[in-house]
Design goal:
CATH topology of the largest domain: D-Maltodextrin-Binding Protein, domain 2
Distance between the termini: 51 Å
Structural class: alpha/beta
CATH superfamily of the largest domain: Periplasmic binding protein-like II
Number of domains: 3
Strand order of the largest sheet: 4-3-5-12-6
CATH architecture of the largest domain: 3-Layer(aba) Sandwich
Shape: globular
Radius of gyration: 23 Å
Amino acid sequence: MKLQHLSALLAVVDHHFNLTITAQHLFTTQPAISKYITQLEEDIGVSLFERRGRRILGLSKEGEQVYEHARRMMQEVENIRKIAQMSSSPETGLIRMATTHTQARYYLPARIPRYMAQHPNVKMQLFQHTPAHNAKLLADGQVDIAICTEVLSDFNGLLAIPCYRWNRLLLVPHGHPLTEIPLLTLADIAAYPLISYSMGFTGRGKLDQTFRQSGIHPNIVITASDADVIKTYVRLGLGVGIVAEMAYESGADFDFTAISLAHLFPSATTWVAYQKHRLISRYIFDFIRQLSPMTRLRFREGEILYEPHEDRIPSYDLLRVNK
Protein backbone atom coordinates (compact mmCIF):
# COMPACT_ATOMS: atom_id res chain seq x y z
CA MET A 1 0.00 0.00 0.00
CA LYS A 2 1.42 3.37 -1.04
CA LEU A 3 0.45 6.94 -0.17
CA GLN A 4 -0.03 7.50 -3.89
CA HIS A 5 -2.77 4.85 -3.88
CA LEU A 6 -4.53 6.44 -0.91
CA SER A 7 -4.33 9.87 -2.52
CA ALA A 8 -5.95 8.44 -5.64
CA LEU A 9 -8.78 6.96 -3.57
CA LEU A 10 -9.48 10.28 -1.86
CA ALA A 11 -9.33 12.18 -5.14
CA VAL A 12 -11.76 9.79 -6.86
CA VAL A 13 -14.30 10.31 -4.07
CA ASP A 14 -13.74 14.07 -3.93
CA HIS A 15 -14.36 14.32 -7.68
CA HIS A 16 -17.60 12.34 -7.52
CA PHE A 17 -16.10 9.11 -8.95
CA ASN A 18 -15.21 10.76 -12.26
CA LEU A 19 -11.85 9.26 -13.21
CA THR A 20 -11.23 11.73 -16.03
CA ILE A 21 -11.54 14.75 -13.74
CA THR A 22 -9.58 12.96 -11.02
CA ALA A 23 -6.72 12.31 -13.45
CA GLN A 24 -6.69 15.96 -14.52
CA HIS A 25 -6.59 17.07 -10.89
CA LEU A 26 -3.65 14.77 -10.13
CA PHE A 27 -1.87 15.61 -13.41
CA THR A 28 -1.86 12.01 -14.58
CA THR A 29 -3.92 9.75 -16.83
CA GLN A 30 -7.17 7.89 -16.30
CA PRO A 31 -5.50 4.47 -16.78
CA ALA A 32 -2.99 5.41 -14.09
CA ILE A 33 -5.80 6.22 -11.63
CA SER A 34 -7.51 2.93 -12.43
CA LYS A 35 -4.24 1.11 -11.85
CA TYR A 36 -3.71 2.78 -8.44
CA ILE A 37 -7.22 1.82 -7.33
CA THR A 38 -6.83 -1.78 -8.56
CA GLN A 39 -3.50 -2.12 -6.74
CA LEU A 40 -5.00 -0.73 -3.55
CA GLU A 41 -7.93 -3.17 -3.73
CA GLU A 42 -5.52 -6.05 -4.31
CA ASP A 43 -3.34 -4.98 -1.37
CA ILE A 44 -6.19 -4.89 1.14
CA GLY A 45 -8.28 -7.66 -0.40
CA VAL A 46 -11.66 -5.91 -0.72
CA SER A 47 -13.56 -4.08 -3.42
CA LEU A 48 -13.70 -0.39 -2.58
CA PHE A 49 -16.42 0.62 -5.03
CA GLU A 50 -19.86 -0.35 -6.21
CA ARG A 51 -19.58 -0.79 -9.97
CA ARG A 52 -21.80 -1.27 -12.99
CA GLY A 53 -19.53 -2.56 -15.69
CA ARG A 54 -16.62 -0.13 -15.80
CA ARG A 55 -18.62 2.68 -14.25
CA ILE A 56 -18.04 3.48 -10.57
CA LEU A 57 -21.33 4.19 -8.78
CA GLY A 58 -20.02 4.88 -5.29
CA LEU A 59 -18.12 3.45 -2.35
CA SER A 60 -18.83 -0.05 -1.10
CA LYS A 61 -19.50 -0.58 2.61
CA GLU A 62 -15.85 -1.58 3.11
CA GLY A 63 -14.77 1.28 0.87
CA GLU A 64 -16.47 3.83 3.13
CA GLN A 65 -14.47 2.54 6.10
CA VAL A 66 -11.21 2.53 4.14
CA TYR A 67 -11.94 6.04 2.88
CA GLU A 68 -12.35 7.41 6.42
CA HIS A 69 -9.07 5.83 7.58
CA ALA A 70 -7.27 6.99 4.43
CA ARG A 71 -8.49 10.54 5.00
CA ARG A 72 -7.08 10.53 8.53
CA MET A 73 -3.80 8.96 7.39
CA MET A 74 -3.26 11.57 4.69
CA GLN A 75 -4.11 14.28 7.20
CA GLU A 76 -1.33 13.01 9.45
CA VAL A 77 1.06 12.98 6.49
CA GLU A 78 0.19 16.61 5.86
CA ASN A 79 0.74 17.39 9.54
CA ILE A 80 4.22 15.87 9.36
CA ARG A 81 5.05 18.04 6.38
CA LYS A 82 3.58 21.08 8.10
CA ILE A 83 5.85 20.63 11.12
CA ALA A 84 8.87 21.27 8.89
CA GLN A 85 7.19 24.25 7.21
CA MET A 86 6.17 25.75 10.55
CA SER A 87 9.73 25.44 11.79
CA SER A 88 11.50 26.84 8.73
CA SER A 89 9.01 29.54 7.62
CA PRO A 90 6.52 30.23 10.42
CA GLU A 91 5.31 33.53 8.92
CA THR A 92 5.13 32.53 5.27
CA GLY A 93 2.29 30.66 3.62
CA LEU A 94 -1.22 30.62 2.22
CA ILE A 95 -4.64 30.77 3.86
CA ARG A 96 -7.37 29.03 1.86
CA MET A 97 -10.67 30.35 3.12
CA ALA A 98 -14.19 29.23 2.21
CA THR A 99 -16.99 31.65 2.98
CA THR A 100 -20.20 33.19 1.67
CA HIS A 101 -20.79 36.36 -0.30
CA THR A 102 -22.11 38.21 2.76
CA GLN A 103 -18.97 37.51 4.82
CA ALA A 104 -16.57 38.16 1.93
CA ARG A 105 -18.31 41.37 0.86
CA TYR A 106 -19.22 42.98 4.17
CA TYR A 107 -17.37 41.41 7.11
CA LEU A 108 -13.90 40.51 5.88
CA PRO A 109 -12.89 43.75 4.08
CA ALA A 110 -12.43 45.49 7.44
CA ARG A 111 -10.13 42.69 8.65
CA ILE A 112 -8.09 41.27 5.80
CA PRO A 113 -6.14 44.47 4.92
CA ARG A 114 -5.02 44.95 8.53
CA TYR A 115 -4.01 41.31 8.81
CA MET A 116 -2.03 41.35 5.55
CA ALA A 117 -0.24 44.51 6.61
CA GLN A 118 0.94 42.62 9.70
CA HIS A 119 1.71 39.43 7.74
CA PRO A 120 3.17 40.55 4.39
CA ASN A 121 4.39 37.06 3.50
CA VAL A 122 0.95 35.44 3.78
CA LYS A 123 -1.32 35.16 0.75
CA MET A 124 -5.04 34.39 0.72
CA GLN A 125 -7.45 32.50 -1.48
CA LEU A 126 -11.18 33.15 -1.01
CA PHE A 127 -13.72 30.59 -2.17
CA GLN A 128 -17.37 31.70 -2.15
CA HIS A 129 -19.97 28.95 -2.08
CA THR A 130 -23.04 27.86 -0.16
CA PRO A 131 -22.46 27.22 3.55
CA ALA A 132 -22.93 23.48 3.01
CA HIS A 133 -20.32 23.41 0.26
CA ASN A 134 -17.94 25.52 2.33
CA ALA A 135 -18.22 23.09 5.23
CA LYS A 136 -17.61 20.13 2.92
CA LEU A 137 -14.52 21.80 1.44
CA LEU A 138 -13.19 22.18 4.97
CA ALA A 139 -14.09 18.65 6.02
CA ASP A 140 -12.34 17.31 2.92
CA GLY A 141 -9.19 19.35 3.64
CA GLN A 142 -9.45 21.50 0.51
CA VAL A 143 -9.44 24.74 2.53
CA ASP A 144 -7.86 25.75 5.84
CA ILE A 145 -10.79 27.58 7.41
CA ALA A 146 -14.47 28.19 6.70
CA ILE A 147 -16.53 31.18 7.82
CA CYS A 148 -20.25 30.38 7.97
CA THR A 149 -23.43 30.84 9.95
CA GLU A 150 -25.03 27.49 9.11
CA VAL A 151 -24.33 23.75 8.81
CA LEU A 152 -20.83 23.52 10.29
CA SER A 153 -22.21 21.23 13.00
CA ASP A 154 -23.34 18.77 10.31
CA PHE A 155 -19.76 17.62 9.68
CA ASN A 156 -17.68 15.53 12.05
CA GLY A 157 -14.09 16.52 12.74
CA LEU A 158 -14.62 20.29 12.60
CA LEU A 159 -14.08 22.74 15.44
CA ALA A 160 -15.81 26.13 15.34
CA ILE A 161 -15.02 29.35 17.18
CA PRO A 162 -17.62 32.16 17.35
CA CYS A 163 -16.79 35.40 15.57
CA TYR A 164 -19.79 37.63 16.24
CA ARG A 165 -23.56 37.76 16.72
CA TRP A 166 -25.78 39.59 14.29
CA ASN A 167 -29.42 40.45 13.73
CA ARG A 168 -31.63 41.12 10.74
CA LEU A 169 -32.75 44.36 9.17
CA LEU A 170 -35.77 45.18 7.08
CA LEU A 171 -34.92 47.39 4.11
CA VAL A 172 -37.73 49.51 2.66
CA PRO A 173 -37.82 52.64 0.49
CA HIS A 174 -38.07 55.94 2.35
CA GLY A 175 -41.68 56.80 3.15
CA HIS A 176 -42.86 53.18 2.99
CA PRO A 177 -45.94 52.51 5.19
CA LEU A 178 -43.89 50.15 7.42
CA THR A 179 -41.73 53.10 8.51
CA GLU A 180 -44.78 54.59 10.23
CA ILE A 181 -45.25 51.63 12.60
CA PRO A 182 -43.37 52.13 15.91
CA LEU A 183 -42.68 48.43 16.56
CA LEU A 184 -43.18 46.03 13.69
CA THR A 185 -44.83 42.63 14.08
CA LEU A 186 -44.40 39.57 11.90
CA ALA A 187 -47.89 40.15 10.55
CA ASP A 188 -46.94 43.71 9.55
CA ILE A 189 -44.00 42.42 7.52
CA ALA A 190 -45.92 39.51 6.00
CA ALA A 191 -48.49 41.93 4.59
CA TYR A 192 -45.96 42.80 1.86
CA PRO A 193 -44.04 40.67 -0.66
CA LEU A 194 -40.69 39.66 0.85
CA ILE A 195 -37.26 39.38 -0.74
CA SER A 196 -34.59 37.57 1.27
CA TYR A 197 -31.86 34.95 1.25
CA SER A 198 -32.04 31.55 -0.39
CA MET A 199 -32.44 28.53 1.86
CA GLY A 200 -29.16 27.63 3.53
CA PHE A 201 -27.76 31.17 3.40
CA THR A 202 -27.33 33.71 6.18
CA GLY A 203 -29.72 32.32 8.74
CA ARG A 204 -32.64 31.79 6.38
CA GLY A 205 -33.72 28.66 8.28
CA LYS A 206 -34.32 30.59 11.50
CA LEU A 207 -36.29 33.23 9.63
CA ASP A 208 -38.65 30.61 8.21
CA GLN A 209 -38.89 28.84 11.55
CA THR A 210 -39.94 32.05 13.32
CA PHE A 211 -42.73 32.71 10.83
CA ARG A 212 -43.87 29.07 10.96
CA GLN A 213 -44.02 28.99 14.76
CA SER A 214 -46.19 32.11 14.70
CA GLY A 215 -48.58 30.57 12.20
CA ILE A 216 -47.81 33.27 9.65
CA HIS A 217 -47.08 32.42 6.02
CA PRO A 218 -45.14 35.24 4.33
CA ASN A 219 -45.18 35.75 0.58
CA ILE A 220 -41.48 35.37 -0.28
CA VAL A 221 -41.38 36.36 -3.94
CA ILE A 222 -37.62 36.39 -4.61
CA THR A 223 -34.68 34.70 -2.90
CA ALA A 224 -30.97 35.19 -3.56
CA SER A 225 -27.65 34.23 -2.01
CA ASP A 226 -26.32 37.75 -2.49
CA ALA A 227 -27.50 40.70 -0.36
CA ASP A 228 -26.69 43.11 -3.19
CA VAL A 229 -29.15 41.23 -5.41
CA ILE A 230 -31.79 41.43 -2.68
CA LYS A 231 -31.30 45.19 -2.47
CA THR A 232 -31.51 45.53 -6.25
CA TYR A 233 -34.99 44.00 -6.38
CA VAL A 234 -36.19 46.00 -3.39
CA ARG A 235 -35.12 49.10 -5.34
CA LEU A 236 -37.21 47.86 -8.25
CA GLY A 237 -40.27 47.90 -5.99
CA LEU A 238 -40.86 44.13 -6.03
CA GLY A 239 -41.02 43.78 -2.25
CA VAL A 240 -39.37 44.63 1.06
CA GLY A 241 -36.03 43.05 1.91
CA ILE A 242 -34.78 41.14 4.93
CA VAL A 243 -30.98 41.07 5.13
CA ALA A 244 -28.23 40.52 7.66
CA GLU A 245 -27.36 43.75 9.43
CA MET A 246 -23.76 43.75 8.12
CA ALA A 247 -25.14 43.92 4.56
CA TYR A 248 -26.51 47.44 5.15
CA GLU A 249 -24.16 50.33 4.35
CA SER A 250 -25.65 53.67 5.25
CA GLY A 251 -23.59 55.52 2.64
CA ALA A 252 -24.21 53.22 -0.32
CA ASP A 253 -27.77 52.34 0.76
CA PHE A 254 -28.90 55.95 1.27
CA ASP A 255 -32.18 55.26 -0.54
CA PHE A 256 -33.33 52.72 2.08
CA THR A 257 -34.79 53.01 5.54
CA ALA A 258 -33.32 50.21 7.67
CA ILE A 259 -35.52 48.87 10.47
CA SER A 260 -34.13 46.53 13.10
CA LEU A 261 -35.86 43.16 13.42
CA ALA A 262 -33.90 42.09 16.51
CA HIS A 263 -37.14 41.94 18.52
CA LEU A 264 -38.74 39.52 16.04
CA PHE A 265 -36.04 37.05 15.06
CA PRO A 266 -33.36 35.32 17.18
CA SER A 267 -29.81 36.54 16.67
CA ALA A 268 -27.44 34.41 14.61
CA THR A 269 -23.77 33.65 15.15
CA THR A 270 -21.07 33.58 12.50
CA TRP A 271 -18.32 31.01 13.15
CA VAL A 272 -14.82 30.35 11.90
CA ALA A 273 -14.08 26.63 11.68
CA TYR A 274 -11.04 24.45 11.07
CA GLN A 275 -10.26 20.75 11.02
CA LYS A 276 -9.90 19.18 14.44
CA HIS A 277 -6.92 16.97 13.62
CA ARG A 278 -5.03 19.36 11.34
CA LEU A 279 -2.06 21.28 12.69
CA ILE A 280 -2.59 25.04 12.43
CA SER A 281 0.20 27.39 11.36
CA ARG A 282 0.87 30.36 13.57
CA TYR A 283 -0.17 32.80 10.84
CA ILE A 284 -3.54 31.03 10.46
CA PHE A 285 -4.03 31.18 14.23
CA ASP A 286 -3.32 34.93 14.13
CA PHE A 287 -6.04 35.39 11.51
CA ILE A 288 -8.55 33.30 13.47
CA ARG A 289 -7.79 35.36 16.56
CA GLN A 290 -8.46 38.55 14.61
CA LEU A 291 -11.80 37.14 13.44
CA SER A 292 -12.72 36.27 17.03
CA PRO A 293 -11.24 39.17 19.03
CA MET A 294 -13.05 38.60 22.32
CA THR A 295 -12.55 34.84 22.55
CA ARG A 296 -9.82 33.45 24.77
CA LEU A 297 -7.52 31.65 22.35
CA ARG A 298 -4.04 30.29 22.89
CA PHE A 299 -1.65 28.66 20.45
CA ARG A 300 0.50 25.67 21.33
CA GLU A 301 2.53 23.59 18.87
CA GLY A 302 0.04 23.79 16.03
CA GLU A 303 -3.10 23.52 18.19
CA ILE A 304 -5.64 26.13 19.21
CA LEU A 305 -6.66 26.10 22.85
CA TYR A 306 -10.15 27.55 23.11
CA GLU A 307 -12.32 28.32 26.14
CA PRO A 308 -15.99 28.52 25.07
CA HIS A 309 -17.88 31.33 26.78
CA GLU A 310 -21.17 32.69 25.45
CA ASP A 311 -20.73 36.09 27.07
CA ARG A 312 -17.60 36.80 25.02
CA ILE A 313 -19.28 36.64 21.61
CA PRO A 314 -19.46 40.28 20.48
CA SER A 315 -22.33 41.80 18.55
CA TYR A 316 -21.72 43.05 15.04
CA ASP A 317 -22.36 46.61 16.23
CA LEU A 318 -19.49 46.29 18.70
CA LEU A 319 -17.15 44.96 16.02
CA ARG A 320 -18.12 47.76 13.67
CA VAL A 321 -17.33 50.40 16.28
CA ASN A 322 -13.95 48.80 17.07
CA LYS A 323 -12.88 47.80 13.57
